[in-house]
Design a protein that fits this description.
The complex is a heterodimer.
Chain A: E1 4-9, E2 12-17, H1 22-28, E3 35-36, E4 42-43, E5 56-59, E6 62-66, E7 77-79
Parallel strand pairs in A: 1-7
Antiparallel strand pairs in A: 1-2, 3-4, 5-6, 5-7
Chain B: E1 5-16, H1 20-31, E2 36-39, H2 60-72, E3 75-77, E4 81-89, E5 92-99, E6 102-113, E7 117-119, E8 132-133, H3 135-143, E9 152-157, H4 162-171, E10 175-181, H5 185-196, H6 202-212, E11 217-218, E12 222-227, E13 234-238, E14 243-247, E15 250-254, E16 257-259, H7 262-266, E17 271-272, E18 275-276, E19 289-291, H8 300-315, H9 319-342, E20 358-360, E21 365-366, H10 376-383, H11 393-403
Parallel strand pairs in B: 1-2, 1-6, 2-3, 6-19, 8-15, 9-10, 9-15, 10-11
Antiparallel strand pairs in B: 4-5, 5-6, 7-16, 12-13, 13-14, 17-18, 20-21
Helix pairs in contact in B: 1-2, 1-8, 3-4, 5-6, 5-9, 8-9
Classes of the chains: A mainly beta, B alpha/beta.
């Protein structure tokens, strides 16, 4: 459980604890705009369990990934604010 | 890359959901010699309450059940969503599963729906601000690695989850500003007194007594609004007479739990009072489909494990072994009913949102754009509320509470999937 991995959040490398969810990693890095709503509001996780879809980010080029359901993997590229 | 479809896999029992109820059902059915698969959309089993990061959960009961599941021989499919469930014939069900955008059809003679529950979110001004999450969400995100060290946290809403989540967050280093429960002290006190009358619920009673000593815990208190620039910075609370504001970095706001019954409805299972209707052996109105845990009635982990065990035996045809579990479930269920009563939502909570408050977060539809006399279908057609990615799970449950609307019958896929998975 101890140990860190490096992932990229919007091009910036960040060190995160191994095995945590991408949502947790982004929240810990202070990111508050996981996605942007239809009317331009920043949105971040609400339910934490895959229901609300507010935590959607682009992972390794694939959009609409529910970051609360994906564990971090070394080298992962995450893009927010979509 | 062209989409692949694996060949159909066939099982005697397919368990949908790997939380406590699903784990118990799968383990017991597999131990009884059945060919079992348990499918969960999270990267690891455990559901919400037994969520963990790393090799294994710290919770002893969770570790015990997961080890037992591993020994039982049941197949486990994680990061896998079930987007459609059909009865093809007697003892012949088909689950459409999707993992990483790839479909696989799973066939089973019997299905166990252990799909758990989600939080009831009631809209209030500022609820869409980053940093406003649910109460169960606080637990789930924390257990998935979110840090709350030094963060000022307000927990508000309703239900027995508020106190254990408050304790967990505090233990993880959060600065707990207040826990605000909307129910009145008198109704909660009556409930805890009732617990003492049932000896087998002693541990729950003691847990609640200890929990209520959490400072600061306020009853009869609810949210007015959340405010901040780009994220939550302040919460305003009320006790019905006065209002006051608290600075915070994280607001956990949840109003109880609602069952995940989309697959049940899709498969034609009858509901009773919004939960899956079951018989004594937890079989639904569709022969061959069983249900266990929160979807049959919110009752917590002990009831989920008992129902899961009962279903495991029932789905394996072991009716004799199932019998003692029927009684155990009955006992635990009365406790669950008392719980629901104690934390009934007060009418003021229907008035939190104003016309400018977004009610459908996926499509940014404000409450003012929706007429109370509509149906969910009309709201979808006229405003797009309920047509977004969450498929009406968040706004639909809120509008059901606010306006009494019935949820629509779901259509497959019950989760968003890439088109490639459907071709």
């Amino acid at each position: 459980m101890t140990g860190t991995v490096e992932i990229y959040a919007n091009g910036q490398p960040i060190l995160v604890a191994s095995g945590i969810s991408v949502a947790a990693a982004l929240l810990n890095a202070g990111i508050t705009d996981f996605r942007v709503s239809v009317s331009g509001e920043p949105r971040a996780p609400l339910c934490g369990m895959g229901i609300c879809q507010e935590c959607r980010v682009v992972i390794n080029g694939v959009p609409h990934q529910r970051s609360c359901l994906v564990a971090v993997v070394p080298g992962m590229r995450v893009a927010t604010g979509d | 890359m062209p989409p692949e479809t694996r060949e159909s896999e066939r099982y005697a029992v397919a368990v949908i959901g790997g939380g406590p109820a699903g784990l118990a059902a799968a383990t017991i059915a597999a131990e009884a010699g059945q060919r079992v698969i348990v499918v969960d959309e999270c990267p690891a089993p455990g559901g919400q309450i037994w969520r963990y990061v790393g090799e294994s959960p710290s919770n002893a009961a969770a570790r015990k059940w997961m080890a037992r599941l591993n020994r039982s021989g049941a197949a486990v499919a994680t990061s896998t969503a079930v987007v459609d469930l059909r009865k093809l014939g007697d003892a012949n069900f088909q689950l459409h599963t999707v993992r990483d955008g790839v479909s696989a059809m799973v066939k089973a003679s019997r299905v166990v729906l252990a799909t758990g529950a989600r939080e009831l979110f009631l809209p209030f001004p500022g609820w869409t601000l980053p940093g406003v999450i649910g109460v169960g969400a606080g637990q789930a995100l924390l257990k998935s690695g979110m840090s709350v060290r030094g963060r000022r946290v307000v927990i508000a809403g309703s239900g027995p989850l508020l106190l254990p989540v408050a304790a967990t967050l505090r233990h993880a280093g959060a600065r707990l500003e207040v826990v605000a429960e909307q129910a009145r002290w008198e109704t909660i006190a009556r409930f805890t007194l009732g617990l003492w009358r049932r000896p087998f619920l002693l541990t729950q009673a003691i847990r609640y007594r200890a929990g209520f000593l959490t400072r600061p815990y306020r009853t009869g208190t609810w949210i007015v609004a959340a405010e901040g620039e780009g994220k939550v910075q302040r919460v305003t609370l009320t006790d019905g007479r006065k209002r006051w504001s608290i600075e915070c970095d994280l607001l956990c706001a949840g109003f109880g739990l609602v069952p995940n019954v989309e697959l049940a409805r899709l498969a034609g299972c009858r509901l009773q009072d919004d939960f899956i209707a079951i018989d004594e052996e937890q079989e639904t109105s569709v022969e061959g489909i069983f249900a266990a845990g929160e979807p049959t009635g919110i009752g917590g982990v002990d009831l989920a494990l008992a129902e899961g065990s009962l279903v495991g035996y029932a789905a394996a045809g072991r009716n004799k072994e199932a019998e003692p579990w029927i009684r155990r479930c009955g006992e635990l269920r009365t406790y669950a009913a008392d719980l629901a009563n104690a934390f009934r939502l007060r009418p003021e909570l229907r008035e939190l949102a104003d016309s400018e408050t977004v009610v459908c977060r996926c499509e940014d539809v404000k409450l003012g754009a929706i007429r109370p006399e509509w149906t969910m279908r009309q709201a979808k057609l006229y405003t797009r509320a309920g047509m977004g990615a969450c498929q009406g799970r968040v706004c639909g449950s809120a509008l059901h509470h606010l306006h009494g609307w019935q949820q629509e019958t779901p259509h497959p896929p019950v989760e968003p999937v890439p088109v490639g998975a459907l071709l």
